[in-house]
Amino acid sequence: MTLPLKFESHRWLREPRHGELLLALIALIFVQSCLSVENVVHRVVLNGFFFVVVLSAIRSFSGSTKRMWATLLVGVLAYATSWANEITEIMGLAIASDLCFAMVFFALIHAVGVNVFCEGPIDANRIIGAVSIYFLLGLLWAFLYTLVELVEPGSFLFPMPASEMPQNTRLISEFIYFSNVTLTTLGYGDVVPLSRPAKMLAVMQAMLGQLYVAIVIARMVGLQVSQRRENAEE
């Protein structure tokens, strides 16, 4: 009699649902645009939202408890180093924080991808997961861009001099914007990659963004429509 109860108590971990992850990602994008990076409290809130995204994706690791705890540990380390950077403004802490966040979002993309692209019928949850991966790609690249700028200052041309920005958090805010407009190939041109690593990352992201939407999401939606027609005919 205890086994069914045990299963039910862990059912929320066994059945990944991607709706809350997508909502957290959309909330992060809207919230970061409303926060002032000159305000310390706002910067802490922004870093907190990154960790909320990590927590909302926890169920995607249902197949590997070790990976789940490892990702959580790296996420806590990323949040802790970002806090320490706010206090000390040490460049090494900023780089460590961004590197940890980049590792976390890469792990989330892999975990969600395993659930989305496994065998089985295509349902709304899988499509939502595929859309979530698209948003996660934008965040991953934002941290990669930030790492490039921190390691090689002057890799990007900003609307205002980089020297007028806070060391790390303002860069994150700017690069979330730049990453999303590059992912969608919108490209307003107000932030421009200058160094070779920056240009390479921008080109790779633009190509990946177009191919992902055209091939992955469109294909999944098409398969879902086809499955519905087959079920209706039966």
Total individual domains: 1
Alpha-beta classification: mainly alpha
- Counted by DSSP, the helix tally is 9
**Helix fraction bin:** over 70%
What's the CATH architecture name?
A: Orthogonal Bundle
* Biggest pleated-sheet summary: 2 strands, antiparallel
Classified by CATH, the class is Mainly Alpha
The end-to-end span amounts to 39 Å
As a percent range, the share of strand residues is: under 5%
Organism: Rhodopirellula baltica (strain DSM 10527 / NCIMB 13988 / SH1)
Protein name: Potassium channel domain-containing protein
Keywords: Membrane, Transmembrane, Transmembrane helix
Transmembrane segments: 21-38, 44-61, 90-115, 127-148, 200-221
Supply the key terms.
9 helices, single chain, mainly alpha, Helix Hairpins, 234 residues, disordered N terminus, two-stranded antiparallel ribbon
Brief synopsis:
With 234 residues, this protein is mainly α. The protein has helices at 2-9, 11-14, 19-34, 40-56, 65-88, 91-116, 124-151, 169-183, 196-233; strands spanning 156-157, 192-193.
Note down, in words, how this protein is organized.
- By secondary structure, the chain is mainly alpha-helical.
- It has a single domain (17-233), classed as Helix Hairpins.
- It is 75% helix and 2% strand.
- The chain contains nine helices and two strands.
- A two-stranded antiparallel sheet has the order 1-2.
- The two termini are 39 Å apart.
- Mean pLDDT is 81; it is low at 1-13.
- Residues 160-221 form the Potassium channel domain.
- InterPro entries: K_chnl_dom (IPR013099).
- The chain crosses the membrane at residues 21-38, 44-61, 90-115, 127-148, 200-221.
